[in-house]
Write a structure and sequence with these properties.
By secondary structure, the chain is mainly alpha-helical. It is about 65% helix and about 0% strand. The protein is flat.
Length: about 110
């Protein structure tokens, strides 16, 4: 708070923004480079890893979460936990579909040839 009771905004230097921008450009270059490589089963993990790093930089610096209050940080953590729960439930549903027999997997509106 300032002397007059007004909230003070954190001022981020231009150098910080330029540094984050350059880091994002390097990570974009790494993304393009990785897209042309075959990492086998790790393709998705590599792409998601780079994307998470880039998203973290954007959230921390451009959305000012790094300099925000504890409540803002709590909201971000809660959102990430909720996303994890949604992904976990979706993947558990997807993984449990293997118990269906091939005959049951067909859509109910399909007509079989005799």
């Amino acid at each position: 708070m300032s002397r007059h009771g007004e909230p003070r905004d954190h001022v981020v230097s231009v150098g910080t923004y330029v540094g984050v921008f350059l880091a994002l450009m390097v990570l974009t270059g790494i993304t393009v480079w990785a897209a042309g490589r075959d990492f086998g089963a790790m393709n998705t993990a590599v792409a998601l890893g780079i994307a998470v790093i880039k998203a973290t930089l954007v959230v921390l610096f451009f959305m000012h979460v790094k300099y925000g209050s504890s409540l803002v940080k709590l909201c971000i953590v809660a959102a990430v936990v909720w996303l994890g729960i949604l992904i976990l439930v979706t993947m558990s549903d997807y993984a449990s579909r293997g118990w269906l027999s091939p005959r049951q997997k067909t859509a109910p509106y399909q007509i079989e040839d005799r």
